[in-house]
Amino acid sequence: ISDAAHDEHAPAGHVPGEHSSAGHVRIFDTSLRDGEQSPGCSMTAPQKLRFAHALADLGVDVIEVGFPASSEAEVEATRRIVREVRGSTLAALARCHTGDIQASARALEGAEDARMHVFLSTSPLHREHKLGLNKEQVIERAVMGVEMARRYLDDVEFSAEDALRTEPEFLVEVCSAAIAAGATTLNIPDTVGYTTPAEIRSLFEYLRVNVRDAKRAVFSAHCHNDLGLAVANSLAAIEGGARQVECTINGIGERAGNCALEELVMALNVRRSYFNATTRIDTRRLVPTSRLLSRITGMRVQRNKAIVGQNAFAHESGIHQHGMLKHRGTYEIMRPQDVGWEQSQMVMGRHSGRAALIDRLQTLGLMVDDTRLNDVFEAFKVLAEKKREVFDADLETLVLGTDAPL
Ligand code: KIV
Ligand code: ZN
């Protein structure tokens, strides 16, 4: 939607993506499920409803609204969202258990556009220590879950939990069986944030070639951030053929979180000609949506967080401020307005130089002649050594205070 593509900044002769026809990548937001279930992020039903509206307005393709089997309150919250929110597919999570699937079906009843999301662990560690099932039993249970979900809805997603630590050949068998049972989306979660970009890309390529009837399903990535690689891994999965990415606003989620929606979307947007992929996200709503989530949960984002952090478009050093005043492209690869900020911020502090001071004084209508400017600049430097940030009001006092005639 936004015209924030800045691939014009790529060096001449840069290598475009080989995956030249990624096309549309679905954005599946799980802030209200994977995000909400993490410490410090729980929400009440009215808060969930409010945030679901914001996600629909943002242009998210699929909103995972919750895990209805976890409580009656979760069923009720899901029902309220189903009654009110339009414009996105609404998904509910269930284990491959009869009771879970029935709870999701009850919660989603009457939805205009709904998806049942069933999941089951597939890795050796989870098979042995969590499920106590052998490979055949895992396949049987996955098929049972998908078939049962299909009795309620046509849109069924199957997730192979801990897929990135599953034997690839076995993953092929599970995915093939899930497609045969009626799954329309196959999600390959990196549940514990263990993989690397090259590895996940190869896995997606391998699955697309080896899974039977792979073309009948959309492959999806769901990356956790335990090694700080969730966004990089999700982008690599797209290069490997994923056409849905599961993510959360501000990257909230279990432990170190999930792939951050705003970072993934802006990487696709800014490097559009590299990835050749588009999303439906209205990028100008990224900052307001991030802020709404922080207000609801009380969990603030770090200042230097990409895209939505307070410092994401702030410049303090003299060299950078000088460059920015000449051409914003020197130190910014996207426009702040394209992600919902009003403007870039020139922070006046001890690293700022003369050019930035002049610009600020002009903006504030406080410009002085050249001789006085030297004094004001000296006074500004002295003040900046004492304060972390020199605010407009400080500059006003400084200029007016040293202006003898006034
Ligand atoms: O991380 C994970 O494996 C999950 C699944 C339930 C999709 O959140
Ligand atoms: Zn997860």
Automatic annotation (TrEMBL):
Residues 25-287 form the Pyruvate carboxyltransferase domain. GO terms for biological process: L-leucine biosynthetic process. It comes from the Bacteria. The keyword Metal-binding applies. One of its GO terms (molecular function) is 2-isopropylmalate synthase activity. One of its GO terms (cellular component) is cytosol. Heterodimer of LeuC and LeuD. Homodimer. Belongs to the aconitase/IPM isomerase family. LeuC type 1 subfamily. This is Multifunctional fusion protein. It comes from Novilysobacter ciconiae. The chain holds residues 10 to 415 of 1023 of the full protein.
